[in-house]
Structure of Anti-sigma factor antagonist:
Amino acid sequence: MNLNIDVKQPEERYSVMTLEGEVDAFTAPKLKEELLPLTEAENALVEVDLGGVNYMDSTGLGTFISALKSTKEHGSRMRLVQMEDRVYRLFKITGLTEIMEIDTSVRGGM
């Protein structure tokens, strides 16, 4: 399956990235290519809507770790929202929920 990426910038330093599909070894490079530049703007907020992501592997997690590092380097923020339960569990068991800003209203009942 492919990954559809839609980016909107409703305000100057605010971007909303909506993902739909699978984030894996095949699609993560495309995601990284579009996500990292958004995190490089100082004082920017990047909101990533993961509601349409039904599968993610370790490569996908690595992409979000790279984006988190970029936010630290550039003084920006990234917030992950609307995660499906199984995707949220990946972030939880790897400890990423402790270091990433994740909206706790997870789809699927958590």
Q: What stands out?
A: The chain has a mean pLDDT of 92. The two ends are 26 Å apart (CA to CA).
